[in-house]
Amino acid sequence: MTLEYATRYRRTSRIPAEPGTPYVVEKGEGDRAHLFGDLITVYAGGEQTENLFNFFTVEGPKGDLIPAHVHQDTYEVFYVTQGAVRLFVEDTRGEQLERVLTPGDFGFVPKNCPHAYRMERHHSQVVGVAAGPGGTFERFFESMGAPTERHGVPPEPVVPAPHAFATVPERYDVRFLPDHQWRTT
């Protein structure tokens, strides 16, 4: 049995809203949202960690490039558990790196480094952790996407309206870079 809590973000959650509360979340039963073609499941967020880090998974089909973006204060980890994910990263000197990550591979993106990714195989999964002094950004997925109780990827991609991206940087430390060019592909 999984306990359910009400939070300021959703009517029911399997994650307690208060820090310092031990809990267990069964596989796939975190706070889920659809964004683009992916299912994002949050297992721990800022509420539980006093904004020190978050822990989430992203599952998706082979698909389009997730738009280039940057986090001013947040470090992000990509750990692939299924499939293959192509990670694009640009360091602060402008050097670009592109690598295909497969199960067991790890990618680290420091703050202020533009990055993007693309699922290269059907049903790929990434475990993500993000941390930084400005807090965590996991509620971005629900705010920009569509919270869901469903398991699995969305039947149709959930693409936010272009004007919605304007509110993101100050709230979630995610700034999209619509004109960014990857020279590595």
UniProtKB/TrEMBL annotation:
<dbReference type="InterPro" id="IPR011051">
    <property type="entry name" value="RmlC_Cupin_sf"/>
</dbReference>
<dbReference type="InterPro" id="IPR014710">
    <property type="entry name" value="RmlC-like_jellyroll"/>
</dbReference>
<feature type="domain" description="Cupin type-2">
    <location>
        <begin position="60"/>
        <end position="119"/>
    </location>
</feature>
<protein>
    <submittedName>
        <fullName>Cupin domain-containing protein</fullName>
    </submittedName>
</protein>
<dbReference type="InterPro" id="IPR053146">
    <property type="entry name" value="QDO-like"/>
</dbReference>
<dbReference type="InterPro" id="IPR013096">
    <property type="entry name" value="Cupin_2"/>
</dbReference>
<dbReference type="Pfam" id="PF07883">
    <property type="entry name" value="Cupin_2"/>
</dbReference>
